[in-house]
Amino acid sequence: MPSNTSAFGVCALSLAACWPRCFAQDNSTYSLGRLSDWDYLCGEYSTPCQKVAHIPYGPDIWLSTEWSYGGDYSFSRRERGFFNRTACETGEPWLELSYEGDWSDIGAARNSPASHAKIDVKSVWLKLWQEKVCLEQVDGDIRCMNTSSAIQTLCPCNGWDWGNDGQPRQRNIGMFCMPREQCPIIHEVYLQQSHHQSYSADSTQACFSPPSSGKTRGWDYPDPEICYEKQSPGRCSTPVAGSMRQCHHVLLQVTLLMIVWPAGL
Questions:
Q1: CA-CA distance, 36 to 38, in Å (whole number)?
Q2: Cα–Cα distances in Å, from 146 out to 22, 134, 164, 182, 248?
Q3: Is 190 helix (H, G, I), strand (E, B) or coil?
Q4: What is the C-alpha separation between 53 and 103, in angstroms, rounded?
Q5: How many beta carbons lie within 10 A of that of residue 101, not counting itself?
Q6: Whether pLDDT at 206 is above 50
Q7: DSSP β-ladder status, 95-108 and 115-128
């Protein structure tokens, strides 16, 4: 990968300014005969409440997600996790993961109509909204979970207390939870990591393959794309106002819950 693909925010937002960068690609992987959809990637996207998993003998896992690609090559994502549909629809999460970074245009693929982008994660926040969550079971019993203790186990963060007298507590993982052993799941998947993604886009929507830490899975052999409407039509050369700055990822929420639920928390 050429070094100039990581110079985020340096190129102007017009196609003319991007021209040299868009064509400085490896001939074995990328097409030199057409431009990528980079100018149409910018925008704000979201998914509504959706059930993504079920923990055996436990609750369903619901998620809502928001993310954005900025005209200044900034990227942000927020995922909120819930234990049931009602909590999701009323906006009462128990856990939230946010991360920010930069995205770069890698160019158009040679052997497919897709375009390729790379996301470099710079900052990650983990936010515990509720220290205890109580749920009604199928038999009518109420089961309560100490979510604060669960997060403390997964991310000790050098002894920083995740409790906050019932108020939300947020930690910048890079500042409070170093070295990586202090919150390994975040460091391994997100913080200072690169995600590779295939996509196609126009002014009203974009279709994304799931991001991958590897180039082969993310670019050469990506999973099928899923399409999302933009919150408002736009292009990178005409930046969308009010680009959000915080975001999250599904993988962490499901992984955390699958780990903590069998512990009887």
A1: 5
A2: 50, 9, 13, 20, 22
A3: coil
A4: 29
A5: 24
A6: yes
A7: antiparallel
The residues with which 124 forms a beta bridge, in sequence order, are 99
pLDDT digits (tens, 9 = 90+) for 65-100: 999 999 999 999 999 999 889 999 999 999 999 999
The pair of structure tokens assigned to 121 is 């994660």
**Higher pLDDT pick, 220 / 28:** 220
Q: If we measure between CA atoms, which residue out of 130, 164, 160 comes closest to residue 146?
A: 130
**Region of 167 on the Ramachandran plot (φ > 0 left; ψ -120 to 50 alpha; else beta):** beta
How far apart (Å, rounded) are the C-alpha atoms in residues 140 and 149?
25
Vertex 77 angle, CA 73 and 81, to 5°:
175
Q: Supply φ then ψ for residue 32, to 5 degrees.
A: -95, 0
Residue 62 has pLDDT above 80, yes or no: yes
Terminal alpha carbon distance of the chain: 46
3-state DSSP call for residue 154? helix
Structure tokens at 92: 């009462």
Q: Cβ(62)–Cβ(49) under 8 Å? A: yes
Cα–Cα distance for residue pair 161/152, rounded to 1 Å: 8
Two tokens, residue 18: 């991007």
* Residue 238, pLDDT score: 66
Pairing of strands 226-229, 205-208: antiparallel
